[in-house]
Write a structure and sequence with these properties.
The complex is a heterodimer of chains A (about 300) and B (about 200).
Chain A lengths: L5 E4 L3 H5 L1 H13 L6 E2 L13 H4 L1 H17 L3 E4 L2 H16 L1 H11 L12 E3 H9 L1 H6 L3 E2 L4 E5 L8 H4 L9 H7 L4 E3 L10 H4 L3 H17 L4 E4 L2 H7 L1 H9 L12 E3 H8 L17 H10 L1 E2 L2
Parallel strand pairs in A: 1-2, 1-3, 3-4, 6-7, 6-8, 8-9
Antiparallel strand pairs in A: 5-10
Chain B lengths: L13 H9 L14 H5 L1 H6 L4 H10 L2 H6 L11 H5 L6 H14 L5 H13 L7 H10 L9 H11 L1 H37 L1
The chains are: A alpha/beta (about 300), B mainly alpha (about 200).
Chain lengths: ~300, ~200
């Protein structure tokens, strides 16, 4: 059986603003010796973002997303995304067009103006699916040399991986477990907390910073309540919202809340990489606004070497 | 006992309701029985207090097209899809809201940051544009160069779907508004100065 070949879809937020997140993914993949199935190809543009863009014009959103699909289709590859927003945009386009041939016709009519045509063969995955399905929990566990047994991680699935579940079909939308399993492969405990399914608020940030800040604070409050050592995310927008956003919200709410929260935020590949024993210096953690050092010190103090 | 009087007669826009329910992705719109589960789960409603998904559907079902598409609060929704996922009747709230937003965009009801997004897209092919500072950081991390996005292809498609024109119109409208405001301010200043001189 031949392995699936993936075109890595970088998106725009990760490569153009948070390159250290991209690094963590590439580093972990090379550690797992799976880089041969992931390819960097030319021709991708913005996914485009699935929150405001479809509101301006649905057809433009679908057409530009499908354009990206044709870029991968030309190379006979599937797509793997770093960002869950890109995942939603691209997967929605591929699923909708598969089920509505008339829609595919309309989109292809626009694409013909740039000499492109989508034939409907591209599958879209997010990197969490790559870790879960292609690599598998067993292989991940085998590569763990520093078991994070005493670390409590608050998983934030976000919205664009789970919903709308009819289209994205990643996991159960109400009680998902896959991200928890991925976290627990490192030995860490994925803790339950209220508002686990809540949105991070990034979608409202540009319109009203206060609404977004309230959403972030609500999540942080609940995460702090259960004593989590850190939180883990799968999306760069969620990352920014909880990292830089945590700093900003803490300042904005400094009179209302007793504790400015200091909950470090890790993109999943960073957490995985730490459990693989990769030197934390490689991950450029100084880019994080919320200090990761206390977490690293705790990991060094309590991590159990895997036998 | 005070009797509630209806001072405003609502004219139901049946075409609007038909327009939406005809779309395959909005086919369950009429199933809504206003239970409010969507609003209960909506984080934007909880914190903004002005954006209410249940009310939007109610207004659609009553056919208040003109009022809805002028509402700038439509843009509070972060498309987290919690409403769509939780609706017991299968009402496709996220799709319906997206379509309403499309109609709103056509009359110029577009928030400034989204106009900015399209501008970035047409200039760089990406909504978050590249920068030399980040490119230097990429180099230090040993990451490959990000391939340039095919801006010309994207522009041709934006022209084909009409979004380029729509945004250009919106920008022109905004510029015209600013110009009018500046003109009126200038006229007021001139009037005040004239009155001062006459008093002196």
């Amino acid at each position: 059986m031949t392995e699936k070949e993936y075109a890595l879809f970088l998106g725009c937020m990760v490569p153009n603003r948070l390159p250290h997140l991209e690094y963590s993914f590439r580093r972990v993949v090379s550690h797992l010796e799976s880089e041969n199935v992931i390819h960097d190809i030319e021709g991708f543009g913005c996914c485009p973002e699935p929150i405001g863009f479809p509101g301006m014009d649905n057809m433009t959103w679908l057409t530009l997303a499908t354009r990206n699909l044709t870029v991968a289709e030309e190379q006979k590859m599937d797509i793997m995304t770093l960002c869950t927003g890109c995942f939603e945009s691209l997967k929605t386009a591929s699923v909708k067009l598969k089920h509505e041939p008339k829609l595919m016709e309309k989109v292809n009519k626009h694409l013909s103006k740039v000499g492109r045509e989508y034939k409907g063969t591209v599958e879209v995955k997010h990197i969490s699916q790559f870790f879960y399905e292609d690599i598998g929990l067993e292989k991940l566990k085998k590569n763990v040399v520093k078991r994070l047994d005493n670390i409590k991680v608050a998983a934030h699935y976000g919205c664009h991986l789970l919903r709308p579940s009819e289209i994205l079909a990643f996991d159960d939308p109400h009680s998902p477990t896959k991200f928890d399993e991925l976290i627990e492969a490192t030995g860490a405990a994925s803790v339950m907390y209220l508002r686990r399914d809540y949105c991070c608020g990034a979608g409202t940030k540009s319109l009203d910073g206060n609404v977004a800040a309230e959403m972030v604070m609500e999540k942080l409050r609940q995460i702090a309540r259960v004593g989590a050592d850190c939180m883990s995310v799968l999306c760069p927008f969620c990352f920014l919202q909880f990292d830089l956003g945590q700093e900003m919200a803490s300042k904005a709410f400094k009179d209302s809340y007793d504790v400015p929260y200091q909950i470090p935020v890790l993109y999943y590949p960073q957490l995985l990489g730490l459990s693989f024993g990769i030197d934390p210096k490689e991950f450029d953690f100084k880019r994080h606004r919320i200090n990761v050092k206390p977490l690293l010190e705790k990991i060094d103090a309590v991590a159990v070497p895997a036998i | 006992m005070k009797m509630a009087t209806r001072s405003k007669h609502i004219k139901i826009n049946h075409e609007f309701i038909q327009e939406l329910t005809k779309l395959p992705e909005c086919e369950h719109l009429k199933n809504c029985y206003q239970c409010g589960t969507c609003a209960a789960f909506c984080p934007s409603f909880k914190y903004s207090k002005v954006y209410n998904p249940r009310r939007i559907v109610q207004e659609v079902l009553v056919g208040l097209k003109d009022e809805i598409i002028k509402d700038t609060n439509l843009w509070f929704c972060g498309l987290c899809h919690a409403c769509t996922e939780q609706c017991p009747q299968g009402v496709e709230l996220s799709e319906i809201l997206s379509h309403i937003r499309n109609l709103a965009s056509k009359i110029g009801n577009i928030p400034a940051h989204l106009v900015g997004e399209v501008k970035n897209l047409l200039e760089t092919g990406q909504v978050v544009p590249p920068s030399s500072a980040i490119n230097r950081r990429r180099e230090k991390l040993g990451l490959p160069e990000v391939p340039e996005a095919p801006v010309e292809e994207i522009r041709v498609l934006a022209e084909s779907t009409g979004i380029e024109d729509m945004i250009k119109r919106k920008i022109a409208e905004d510029v015209e508004k600013e110009r009018k405001i500046a003109e009126e301010a200038k006229a007021r200043m001139e009037k005040l100065e004239k009155e001062k001189k006459e008093e002196a």
